[in-house]
Every structure is written in C-alpha cells, then in structure tokens.
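Please fill in the sequence for the structure shown.

STRUCTURE ENCODING:
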C-alpha cells in the first residue's frame, strides 16, 4: 500500500496560485494579458474549489489557479486545495508564497494528501497523478504522519467483515504496535470469562471460535509522562443479534468497528510524534452474530465492575463491550480516559454525519478540544452528560438498562451508561459515525476519521505535555 507523502522539490514544479474571490480581480490585473483573457473565458472568479490550468506557448501547463472562495463559502466547505487537487492533471505542483488571508498551510496540505487516498484492496484504482511539493513553513513529518494515521483508519473501516473480523483487528493492533515498539497482548474466547470480561464474551460468543471469537486487545506504549487510555469499540460486524437489523440498516455494519479504527489512528499519531506520555489502548473486539449461543432480550448480565445489566435490545451491544473495557481502564486510574464508538443512530439524528459529538464534564478539556477542532478543520460538537436522564437507564430488575424505552436522548443515555463504568475518572466519550456518505474534498466516500486530529492537537493542553 502506498503511503501519503509530499513530492520532492523540483525546478519543473508547476506553480499554484491560490486566489480568494474577494481579490481575484486584483490578482488578475497583475497577470499577463493572455492569463487574464483565459481566466475570463473560463469563468474563473476565485470561487471556492475552482481550478484553472494555464498552458505556455508550447502547450505545457505552466501554472494553475485555485479558488479559495469567499469567507461565506469557506464557512460551508473545507479543504479547498484538496478540491482543486482532484481536478488537476498529473504533474508536480508547488504553492507560491503569496497566499490569501485565512489560508491555513498545514490544514490545506493535509487535505491535499487526503485527496490522494484510494481503497484498492479489492480492485485497481487510478492513483492521483497530481503531487504537491511540501509548502514552505509546514512541519512536513507531522502532516504526513497525520495523513498516514487517517489512511490507516479509513483502510480498517473500509475492509469488509469477512477480512476484518476480531482476529484481523487484533492483527492490525499488533502490526501498529510492532511498528512503534509497543507491547500488545490479547485475551480471547473463553479466557474472557476466566479473566472477568463477561460482557465482551457474551456479545461475541455467537460468532464462533478462532478468528471470529471475541477478544480484548491491549497495547501499551511509553514509559514516562501522564497516562492516557484510549478505548475503541471493535464490533467488527453488527447484525443486531436476535433483535435483527433490517437489511437496509445492516449494510454498513462493517463500519461498527469505527471506534477502534479511530483510536488506532490516534494512537499512530501519538506514537509517531513520540508524545511524552504513557499510552494504553484497549480494543474490545467481537461480532454481534446470530446463532444458538446468542444472548437474548431480557437476559440480565453481570459486568466486570459487578453492575448488572438488563438486555432490552441485543442491538445495543456496543455499550456492553465498552463497559468491560472501561471498567478495566479505570482500575489503573489514568490521567485521561477517552472512548470512541459508532454507538448510536441518535447521535446522527442530533448532529448529522459530519460532526463528531463528544461528552465530557471537564470544562478545560472541552475548551481545548473545541479550539483545536477549529484549527484542524476536524469538527466536533459537545453534548451533555445530562444527569436527570440517569433514571432512564435504571430498569426494575437490574442496575442498568442497555436500551431504555421511549426513543428520546439515545446518545445521551448511552453516554450516561458508559460513564457508570468509569469510577469518576476524567472521561471523554465520542459517539462518532465513521463514514463519509459521498465523495467530498479530502474525504472520499467510505470510512473516515472523526475527532482524532482535533484530539491529537488538544492533548498537549489537556495533559500539560
């Protein structure tokens, strides 16, 4: 698989002029008459994502104009350079040093690298031939590492469950750990019961043995600094269990391990950057399948923490596997605990597919994350741990209900459920979608990372690194 990288500097690189709509006329006045005329004929106005190539007298492209749009357009779209990259013919390109106000070099360069992503495991794809020379003033290694981590996340989510079951997800963790000198260990199948991870075992037991057996994968990295624990939902396929999903809802369930994929992408960023912290990653991996041993609506399960859970919907399995992993995570009292999961459809109803909803009781963490999300063009939205809804997750015959009736505030009640297993830890939870529904600049249709770049940028403030 190729990796995202910038082109080497070249005297033959084609100059790219980024032009805002507000200053397009001013820019064109300073250009040769042939350029002005060509721009007018082609309708180039500096609109967001516009792209115009200009040839020399021999017919070779000598420069390209990229539209940065108006301030209003930029509020509605991001990654203008990526939008142009998709339209440019093959060649090596280099940004000029004169850039419009508000043009963030690192974000736009990242967007260009993301426009190069192709998922080619099962069919050949035409690679992008438009390569960008690393712009002056960016941290090249950092941008390339962020892009590589995002490519990893996308590859994991895009791989169908036939090739990305619990065993394959474990292998992905082991490969990442080996790359960075991390330690990886796994508890599998019946050993989950002997080592007190009953909910993970219960959710995954119907999928069978071997590579399909449920498991808890742990990766440890770093020897000094504050402790950060990341927990990612790794349900590799979700049929809904005995509360079987309809076909239309089951079609995208290969992405139900998107929380694990996002956590691994974030871990890749952290380890590549060698942040001075101690990292622990926990991935409860399972398939929610249908067979004789499948768990049932009405069952009451006992968790690692000792809390009992009444199962009122087997399709609310993600919070069950996360509960055992969160209980383990809090036993070591980490300085910061973060979970990521494709957990509820309610979150999509609340904020749509593009925003990553997050929960935290820590005002400083919320402020740091919101700030970095804007800077990194990685949008998030804070949701409340609304305590008055606690009663909704307390059924009559057990400590907790995995699927409260009523249909309201589903993302909030799921987050409150998870918080019950964190022992008052400094905790942040993300209820992500992990999927881009259509091709967009820097975000091809398919699996996508959400909130990870924002988190990576916020961690130095959150952990005083």
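FILLED IN BY: designer on duty
SEQUENCE:
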């Amino acid at each position: 698989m190729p990796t995202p990288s910038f082109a080497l500097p070249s005297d033959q690189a084609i100059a790219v002029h980024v032009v805002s709509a507000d200053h397009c006329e001013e820019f064109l006045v300073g250009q040769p008459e042939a350029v002005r005329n060509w721009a007018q004929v082609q309708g180039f106005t500096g609109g967001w994502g516009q792209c115009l190539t200009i040839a020399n007298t021999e017919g070779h492209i000598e420069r390209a104009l990229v539209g940065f749009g108006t301030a209003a357009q930029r509020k509605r779209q991001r990654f203008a350079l990526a939008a142009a990259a998709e339209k440019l013919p093959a060649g090596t390109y280099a940004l000029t040093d004169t850039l419009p106000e508000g043009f963030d070099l690192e974000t736009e360069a990242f967007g260009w690298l993301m426009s190069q992503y192709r998922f080619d495991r099962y069919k050949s794809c035409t690679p992008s031939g438009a390569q960008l020379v690393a712009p002056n003033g960016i941290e090249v290694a950092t941008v390339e590492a962020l892009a590589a981590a995002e490519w990893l996340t996308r590859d994991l989510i895009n791989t169908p469950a036939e090739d990305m079951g619990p065993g394959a997800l474990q292998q992905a963790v082991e490969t990442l750990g080996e790359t960075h000198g991390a330690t990886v260990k796994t508890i599998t199948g019946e050993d989950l019961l002997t080592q007190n991870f009953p909910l993970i075992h219960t959710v995954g037991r119907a999928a069978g043995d071997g590579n399909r057996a449920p498991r808890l994968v742990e990766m440890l990295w770093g020897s000094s600094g504050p402790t950060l624990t990341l927990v990612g939902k790794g349900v590799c396929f979700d049929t809904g269990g005995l509360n079987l999903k309809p076909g239309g809802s089951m079609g995208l369930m290969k992405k139900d391990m998107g929380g694990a994929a996002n956590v691994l992408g974030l871990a890749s960023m952290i380890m590549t950057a060698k942040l001075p912290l101690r990292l622990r990653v926990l991935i409860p991996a399972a398939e929610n399948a249908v067979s004789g041993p499948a768990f049932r609506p009405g069952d009451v399960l006992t968790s690692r923490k000792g809390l009992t859970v009444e199962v009122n919907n087997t399709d609310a399995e993600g919070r069950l596997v996360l509960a055992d992993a969160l209980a383990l995570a809090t036993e070591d009292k980490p300085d910061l605990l973060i979970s990521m999961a494709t957990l509820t459809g309610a979150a999509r109803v609340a904020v749509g597919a593009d925003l990553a909803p997050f929960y935290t009781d820590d005002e400083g963490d919320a402020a740091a994350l919101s700030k970095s999300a804007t800077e990194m063009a990685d949008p998030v939205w804070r949701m409340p741990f609304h305590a008055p809804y606690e009663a909704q997750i307390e059924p009559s015959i057990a400590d907790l209900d995995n699927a409260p009736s009523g249909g309201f505030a589903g993302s909030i009640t799921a987050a409150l459920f998870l918080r019950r297993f964190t022992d008052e830890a400094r905790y942040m939870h993300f209820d992500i979608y992990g999927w881009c529904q259509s091709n967009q600049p820097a975000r091809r249709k398919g699996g996508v990372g959400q909130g990870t770049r924002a988190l990576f940028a916020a961690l130095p403030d959150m952990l005083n690194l």
